[in-house]
Amino acid sequence: MTSERAASPYPDSAEEFRQRVQEFLSAQLPAGWNGLGSIPTEEQVVFIDAWRATLHRNNLLAVSWPESYGGAGLTPLDQLVLAEEFTKAGVPQGGLNDNFSIQMLGSTLLKFGTEDQKQYYLPRILSKDDVWCQGFSEPEAGSDLAGVRTRAHRDGDEWVIEGQKTWTSYGHLATHIFVLCRTDPDAVRHRGLSLLLVKIDQPGVTLRPLKTLTGEEEFNEVFFDGARCAVESIVGEVNDGWRMAMTLLGFERGEAAATLPMKFGQDLERLVQLAIRYDKAGDDTVRQRLARSAEGVEQMRSMGMRAVSQWVNGHEIGAESSIHKLFWSEWLQETTELAMDIMGIDGIIPTGDGLQGMSFPAAEAGTPNTSGAWADYFLRARAATIYAGSSEIQRNIIGERILGLPKDAR
Amino acid sequence: MFFELDEDQEQLKDLMRSFLQQESPEHTLVQRTENSLERPHDVRVFDRLCAELELVGLAIPEERGGSGAGLVELFVVFEELGRVLYGGPLLSTMLAAELIVTADTEDDFAELLGQLLAGAVRGAVAGLEWNRPSGLTASQDESGHWIVSGVSDYVFDGTDADQVVLFADSGDGVRCFLVDQPEALERSAREQLDLTRPVGRIRFDAAPVTPIGSAASAAGVRERVVAVATLCITAEQVGAARRCLEISVEHAASRTQFGRAIGSFQAVKHRCADSAVLVEAASATGLHAAWALQQDAGQQDPVVRSAKSVCSEASVKVAASTIQVLGGIGYTWEHPAHLFYRRAITSRQTMGTTWQHRDDIASQLFARG
Ligand SMILES: Cc1cc2nc3c(=O)[nH]c(=O)nc-3n(C[C@H](O)[C@H](O)[C@H](O)COP(=O)(O)OP(=O)(O)OC[C@H]3O[C@@H](n4cnc5c(N)ncnc54)[C@H](O)[C@@H]3O)c2cc1C
């Protein structure tokens, strides 16, 4: 229940690094810092830019990357410790697209990229010369990613791309897009796919903003009409894109297991305050549901620690990440629904500052405890069981890959 | 770095698993519970658990005659016991020993402790319920001897334990006692929902007792014994839920309808997946509670409460789901699914109901806020 444990399950080396991160944070953050959520929305974007530059200057954007590619050469556990401390302090680990640029693409290139690709792309990601977004989903291929239709064919020493992607988050902020496309039209489904690295600012790429259910223009449609990239701009082998995509999606969930419970712990504290403000501390139903939410945080924390120790002991976190994803996305929906119930009729006229489009999984620390923030969070939570693999897909993965049940008819 | 079992703990788990598979196999469960008023356990199994595996003293310090292992090891053991719905007097004997070790710092009860650890004496603890008054009051008679009166309604193994220890309200707080003449107590077995573990009622009618430990430490002792008891129940719940999940999955993979394995239907597959999530989350939370309690007793209350409530929910839901996945077979007397369900509901109501724990968790949240 408490966010601090008396004993740390981490090795000393990680705790020493934690100390360093804490010192860095207290030196860099303004006095009385209360979390990104506590500054006005307009200033958040400015802050994030400046903060990202500070992180870059101090080599803290990708601490576990090798030094030769611009990283700090530390361990993945150090990376995790950093993520934890940043989460506690309510500061981001990078800019909005860095989840795509650093965590997803960067990690995939480190694993499968050629030496030239690593030398070229990785430092440019850190310096923000290149900003990435993810071009996987298509209007006709979401859950069924193996069904992508966007095609690429060879023309001399270039790939030429035709087709459409959609729901591309932060595409409007990106300079580049990694595109899963069909390079062998005759091969069945996932056997004929490749992962290409494509510049957005070129003839043949058109971005159109697409409003989300919250009313924001956060994701986009992307049209490819003869867009080009060099033949070398492929990750892995030709027609081996499925494996690349799966690796990349695996990195998408990497640290979440350990850091989300912390964020959710902060959300829970806000929710308790909200309940007090609405005089619901004596309401039996609210008490039971709040306790359930608190238990959820405890469960996520315990599962997160298990994942971390597996990771530290050298086991990859595989399909279990589906359990985490399913759990936290449902927790989020239940908990934000509880907030709406606590606010009662106030919830339908959201007032006060809200979140306004800064982060998907959880409200930032310091977010004002207003009906505006909770109503926004509540709506936003609807996406959590859809993106990064819908709940139904997670249940299929758990059933088939963890429990070994037979595949359903496909 | 904690949170995966280490090699020794894995070995302990394997040892327990193979021992119990042999000595207490699942397919005999139903037959063993035919008469719910008779003790559904095999005395020989209990003796071996005590004498060969030395389980009563597993988490008791070496200097007091135990093996000095931790609560994580205890969790591992009880998880395995839960898998087979073991219902013998191990838990109550162990809790009696735990009470004595914690309360009796002067070693006044060393002989009794030794007997409990050896399994030569089967113990029971009365007045032990989270969130409930003990129901027992203690007072001193003219000659200064302590006597206890009242009824303790839900005592694990209460009917035929050889020795009974208890918590009672002494007028200025709780105290720990040993019953002087356990054979003279009025004890009754009752028809009960769970057919695998007997819970008895004991009436104390000015029963002579001897205090264990000091008045000052008794509240702490109670807290500790309650926490350990809750943790063991929690571990059993995880083990039972895990076994239920396995039963469901085995069935879903092999039973065919409409020409396909039913596990290929998402309605069934997703049910199993939801159970897997419940089991994973419960097991992580329970084990974490064991670890946290061991690291820092001061933290015990919230983590153990959470774990109890979470594991209760998981075991009940997963057992219910197993009956559903098994269809008609799941509703037969011959299939052990109902025994898992009965145990799950019973354990959920024991050592603090989910409702009570959540109410207390809420109080803690508001007190902090
Ligand atoms: C906020 C947000 C941001 C996103 N950002 C990106 C991005 O940056 N880049 C990107 O490439 N994509 C992005 N996506 C797309 C996301 O990955 C897809 O929406 C998701 O994979 C689901 O695909 P779909 O929308 O086509 O729904 P569908 O696949 O059509 O699913 C519709 C419904 O059917 C269910 N369903 C589908 N298949 C099965 C099955 N086999 N069994 C049972 N049920 C099934 C689903 O669970 C769902 O409930 C984003 C989505 C959201 C909501």
Describe the structure.
The complex is a heterodimer of chains A (410) and B (369). Chain A is of the alpha+beta class and 410 residues long. In chain A, 45% of the residues lie in helices and 14% in strands. Chain A has three domains: 13-95, Butyryl-Coa Dehydrogenase, subunit A, domain 1 (Orthogonal Bundle); 129-243, Butyryl-CoA Dehydrogenase, subunit A, domain 2 (Beta Barrel), CATH 2.40.110; 253-403, Butyryl-CoA Dehydrogenase, subunit A, domain 3. Chain A contains eleven helices and eight strands. In chain A, the strands form two sheets. In chain A, strands 1-4-5-8 form a four-stranded mixed sheet. In chain A, α1 packs parallel to α3 (76-89), α3 (76-89) runs parallel beside α7 (256-277) and α8 runs antiparallel to α9 (320-343). The model of chain A is unreliable at 1-6 (pLDDT under 50). Chain B is an alpha+beta fold and 369 residues long. Chain B folds into three domains: 7-118, Butyryl-Coa Dehydrogenase, subunit A, domain 1 (Orthogonal Bundle); 123-217, Butyryl-CoA Dehydrogenase, subunit A, domain 2; 219-368, Butyryl-CoA Dehydrogenase, subunit A, domain 3 (Up-down Bundle). Chain B has helices at 7-23, 29-32, 43-51, 71-83, 90-103, 110-118, 218-254, 266-295, 300-326, 337-349, 354-368; strands at 123-126, 136-140, 146-156, 163-169, 174-179, 186-189, 199-212, 256-257, 260-261. The longest helix of chain B has 37 residues, at 218-254. The model of chain B has no long low-confidence stretch (mean pLDDT 92). The interface between A and B is large, with 56 and 52 residues. Residues 134-137, 142-143, 167-169, 219, 383, 386-387, 390, 392-393, 396 of chain A line the site of flavin-adenine dinucleotide. Chain A: It holds the Pfam family Acyl-CoA_dh_1.
Question: Can you describe this structure in just a few lines?
Answer:
The complex is a heterodimer of chains A (410) and B (369). Chain A has 11 helices and 8 strands.
